[in-house]
From TrEMBL:
Membership in a protein family: Belongs to the cytochrome P450 family.
Record carries keyword Metal-binding: yes
InterPro entries, A to Z: Cyt_P450 (IPR001128), Cyt_P450_B (IPR002397), Cyt_P450_CS (IPR017972), Cyt_P450_sf (IPR036396)
Superkingdom, taxonomy of origin: Bacteria
Pfam families: p450
Protein name per UniProt: Cytochrome P450
PANTHER family: CYTOCHROME P450 YJIB-RELATED, P450, PUTATIVE (EUROFUNG)-RELATED
Source organism: Streptomyces sanglieri
Alphabetized CDD domains for the sequence: CYP107-like
Keywords carried by this UniProt record: Heme, Iron, Metal-binding, Monooxygenase, Oxidoreductase
Length: 392
């Protein structure tokens, strides 16, 4: 199977391809790798939701790849983290971080998010094209998650670069090298923080690690790397995709300009319409499973295509329309089940604050290029713009 992320037309608009696959069969076998192995792609909404909540679909990648030859050299802290674990390990690790991302905890961060947003918008050039991604969508989530974790300001550009490299589709060496850079950096930061403990989320995790045996040193490093990367990459894509969607739907954009208080209600529809995570992370069957009428054998990889599921007309009528009045709360952009994105409240808070500020301060914001000239990231799991040239 050719890698669709290398096809510019698919990157521009993957949804016709998804629709064709879904109408042919919502769960289908596709060849993966050179050994004739089959993976199963899930593109239907009902089937995706079912798969994401099925305990027979394991996320324990270490168990799946044990004994298999691989040229990959991913750092263990990136290869084996909370996302790639099952209960009871997953339950224990998730409990340690959930408190930091509750609605109440995020509410405390809102003034900081608003201040950073305004500082970034102050730097926007007037009357000349500039890149929305570089000027807002990338820096805002990086600054927020680094603040939450207690990453020093001077280290943030490195974090941003390594994190971007982790998603470089078709470049295994780049991905592997970035995983080592990030994990080594985080191990050093943890060592430095131990000497002068503060109050950040990372400091609190260090205290949990040193206070009893509920967290190993390896788990501490991997949890920190996961929070850092997952805490900003997807939000960056959410901000870019949502802004582009609104710029391409002037009627919806005008309504929100006139009534910025309506922004929170439309976030779920924006997430559904162009999901920042296109495919859920790796799962495989621990026993034979029947999904959407398709029999999947034991030990088969299952890829849940969230972007396709969120455009399933069976669940969302006229799915290719952006409809601000739609109740899209059932979307799968944050996943579903025990692995649903722990940072969802933070991502929505950042998007709400950023969109409100942008629409209020720059009512004339518009695209500076034709939509078909936009550059999309060559990434497998996430869907996002490499740049978004705009004028204000």
């Amino acid at each position: 199977m050719t890698d669709p992320t290398q096809d510019p037309r698919f990157l521009q608009d993957p949804y016709p391809t998804y629709a064709a696959m879904r109408s042919a069969c919502p769960v289908q076998a596709v060849p993966s790798g050179s050994g004739g192995r089959l993976s199963y792609l899930v593109t239907g909404y009902a089937e995706a939701r079912e798969a994401l909540a099925d305990a027979r679909l394991s996320k324990d990648t270490a168990a799946f790849f044990a004994g298999k030859e691989s040229k990959r050299r991913l750092h263990p802290a990136v290869a084996h983290n909370m996302l790639s674990s099952d209960p009871p390990e997953h339950t224990r690790l998730r409990k340690l971080v959930t408190k930091a991302f509750t609605t109440g905890a995020v509410a405390e961060l809102r003034p900081f998010i608003a201040r950073v947003t305004d500082e970034l918008l102050d730097q926007w050039p007037v009357g000349e094209p500039f890149d929305f991604v570089a000027f807002l969508a990338v820096p805002l989530p990086v600054i927020v998650i680094c603040e939450l974790l207690g990453v020093p300001e001077e280290d943030r550009p490195d974090i941003q670069r390594w994190s971007g490299e982790l998603f470089a589709a078709g470049q295994p060496d780049v991905i592997d090298a970035a995983s080592h850079s990030l994990a080594d950096y985080m191990a050093d930061l943890i060592a430095a923080k131990r000497r002068h403990l503060g109050s950040s989320l990372l400091d609190r995790l260090i205290s949990a690690r040193d206070g009893d045996d509920q967290l190993s040193e390896e788990e501490l490093v991997s949890l920190a790397v996961l929070l850092l990367v997952a805490g900003h990459e997807t939000t960056t894509n959410f901000l870019g995709n949502a802004t582009l969607s609104l710029l391409q739907h002037p009627a919806e954009l005008d309504r929100l300009r006139q009534n910025p208080d309506g922004i929170p209600a439309v976030l779920d529809e924006l997430l559904r319409f162009d999901s920042p995570v296109s495919t859920a992370t790796f799962r495989y069957t621990t026993e034979a499973v029947t999904l959407g009428g398709t029999d999947i054998p034991t030990g088969a990889p299952v890829l849940v295509v969230l972007g396709a599921a969120n455009r399933d007309p069976e669940r969302f009528p006229s799915p290719d329309q952006l409809d601000a009045n739609r109740d899209a709360a059932g979307h799968l952009a944050f996943g579903h089940g025990i692995h649903r994105c722990v940072g969802a409240p933070l991502a929505k808070a950042e998007a709400e604050i950023a969109l409100r500020a942008v629409l209020t301060r720059f009512p004339g914001l518009r695209l500076a290029v034709q939509p078909d000239q936009l550059q999309w990231r060559h990434a497998r799991l996430v869907r996002g713009l490499a740049s978004l040239p705009v004028l204000n």
